[in-house]
Design a protein that fits this description.
The protein is α+β, with helices and mostly antiparallel strands. The chain has a single domain, classed as Nucleoside Triphosphate Pyrophosphohydrolase. The chain is built from three helices and ten strands; from the N terminus they run ββββαββββαββα. The strands form two sheets. Strands 1, 2, 3, 4, 5, 6, 7 and 8 form an eight-stranded mixed sheet that branches. It has a two-stranded antiparallel sheet with strand order 9-10. The longest helix has 13 residues. The radius of gyration is 14 Å and the shape is globular. About 30% of the residues are buried.
């Protein structure tokens, strides 16, 4: 995990219609070919929420979002050398068309039930996305 750092963060973006934006990860990133969230490495001395917003802007372009300050979840790797912070963001622009960079090959606006099923359009949903949606449904 040293290449990716010890911390990463991303945004679970929800539209005003209750659907979520997922990105199809390209062959050039970790976990290619699965549906995931925009996000990435938290730089040294960077707040995880700031990193999630920065990484999201890099991956889908600048969007009008309202980002909640409390993470939906913080996942800790079993070896305790990595953690991932997921924040909820509401799209103020409806279900926009993201401007994708090289990290993603496609996108979909999808429902909670489709995410929880674990597969969308024949491809796996990253388990971290499923975990985050479950945490949103059942806050601790």
């Amino acid at each position: 995990m040293s290449y990716w750092g010890r911390r990463a963060a991303g945004l679970l973006i929800r539209s005003p219609y209750g659907r979520y934006l997922l990105l199809l990860r390209s062959a050039y990133v970790y976990d290619p070919g699965v549906w995931g969230l925009p996000g990435g490495r938290v730089e040294d001395n960077e707040d995880p929420q700031d990193a999630a917003v920065r990484e999201t802007e890099e991956e889908i372009g600048v969007q009008s979002l309202r980002v909640y300050t409390k993470p939906i979840s913080i996942w800790h790797a079993p070896d305790a050398n990595f953690e991932y912070h997921t924040f909820l963001a509401l799209s103020l622009s409806g279900e926009f068309v993201p401007v994708l960079n090289w990290e993603n090959d496609g996108y979909v606006w999808t429902t909670e039930n489709e995410i929880l099923s674990g597969r969308i359009e024949g491809r796996w949903v990253h388990p971290g996305v499923v975990r985050s949606v479950r945490a949103l449904k059942n806050p601790a």
